[in-house]
Amino acid sequence: MTWESYNAILQEEVFPYLKDEKGIKTMQKVVRSFRKCYDVDNDIDVSYQGDLERKAYFLTYFPAHARQMQINLSFINNHISRLITPRGFLKASFFACGPGSEFYGFISFLQKEKLFPELDVHFIDREVGWKPYIIEQLKRLENRGYKTISRNYQDCFHQCTIEQCGLCKADCKVFIGSPQLVVMQNVINEKTFSREKFINSIDKLLAKLKTGSILVFSETLYHSNKEFLEEVFAILQNSFKAKGLTAGCQPRYSYVDYDYLPETLRVLNGESGLIRKTRVNSYFLALQK
Ligand SMILES: C[S@@+](CC[C@H](N)C(=O)[O-])C[C@H]1O[C@@H](n2cnc3c(N)ncnc32)[C@H](O)[C@@H]1O
Asked: Which atom of ligand 1 is nearest to the CA of 125?
């Protein structure tokens, strides 16, 4: 994986914060609170509202989450290549995108498969603070060999919740032309994501997609959320079956190795008490309309 846009954002946004011990210590505090939420609590309630929280998340989780998506998409590589139109076009939407980890993984997957469609990509997250991270990646997309149909990257990020999404105006860019691929990574577990409305939201979303479109769900697996995710994935599969939709792949587990930059290791150093994670486990489901 080439990490050009990741490294560039780190240089501009994150490393200046790590220039002294005080900055590092504060960053460590945030990473510790993330760990507590992700590893211990069954229900994840993390705030990404603060600038520092977003920096810490980007520094420590982005690379593994990018790989998580790259690896998971490789399970359905034949399906993805078939989504590209005969004119070489692919529309994809990333829900609860955060800093765009899964987008980075998606582009890395396409590069590895030597697929170079013209892209129409849209991003949805309830936190507008992620927008600059997405725009920075879009600006550097050409360096990775990709063209986008959008000349205005500002229009590609939509501050919106998943629950609101199916209710949007008819002219919402996320749905015009219908995305062939919709990706949701690491959001099902979030407390902010209302469970009651979850299937309802997916149903509304489905109604807006063309036959053949693929919905991808990819979640980091912790000991505390395995049962919950298995239950949610089963509900999703059953709801598809009930509609007469049978295609897609069975849920899969995968391991993704962490690979730390020296700067990240300065944050996760021995004295901080933060154990370096070596791998992330993930759980993946793809459903085709
Ligand atoms: C753990 S982060 C995942 C970010 C990215 N997808 C990844 O895999 O690294 C969860 C993201 O979901 C967003 N989020 C949480 N609840 C949401 C909701 N109901 N609708 C839209 N976004 C939501 C948060 O703001 C955050 O950016």
From this structure: 22
- CATH fold for domain 4-288: Rossmann fold (3.40.50)
Are 219 and 95 within 8 A, CB to CB? no
Q: Residues enclosing ligand 1, CB less than 6 A?
A: 48, 61, 65, 96-98, 101-102, 125-127, 130, 161-163, 185-187, 190, 192-193
Euclidean distance between CA atoms 70 and 2, whole angstroms? 13
Mean pLDDT of each 10-residue bin along the chain, 289 residues long: 77 88 91 82 77 93 94 94 96 96 97 97 96 94 92 92 77 84 92 76 87 94 85 89 82 90 86 85 94
Q: Tell me the whole-structure pTM to 2 decimals.
A: 0.94
Instruction: Kindly report the number of other CB atoms within 10 A of residue 281's CB atom.
Output: 15
DSSP 3-58: -HHHHHHIIIIIGGGGSSHHHHHHHHHHHHHHHIIIII-SSB-----SHHHHHHHH
Nearest to 185 by CA among 282, 42, 57, 271: 282
Q: How far is the CA of 67 from the centre of ligand 1 (A)?
A: 17
What is residue 288's three-state secondary structure?
strand
The residue written with tokens 């879009």 in the block is: 138
Find tokens 């219908």 and name the residue.
178
DSSP, residue by residue, 63-95: HHHHHHHHHHHHTTHHHHHHHS-TTSEEEEEEE
Rounded CA separation 219/96 (Å) = 12
Domain assignments of the chain as residue spans, ordered by start = 4-288
